[in-house]
């Protein structure tokens, strides 16, 4: 699959939701296309409302910067090179884990963002979404 469409988003969400259920957390999972446009957002029962924007912004950060959001953690702490980066782009840049680009042949074709638990759990669930995408592409 060279593009992220609704069918791909459903598979990404299914893979991510399965992992969230396995670790016992309620998550919001968002999938964006290569232009940062929303394809789908899935809020599991009882997931935090705040996680809707956070998940979408994690995905947007990953597609906009073509990297996992966790890559920004060290560079954005006080006195680091990119401190304050999260205040740019109308506050959409997220500088902690849970967002991953989706790639086909080394080209970013979209992104997944997950929010609703600890950063460690957000990353695990997002990685499950990436794995589901990679199995279909």
From TrEMBL:
Transmembrane segments: none annotated. InterPro entries: GlcG_carb_metab_protein (IPR052517), PduO/GlcC-like (IPR005624), PduO/GlcC-like_sf (IPR038084). This is Heme-binding protein. It comes from Candidatus Salinicoccus stercoripullorum.
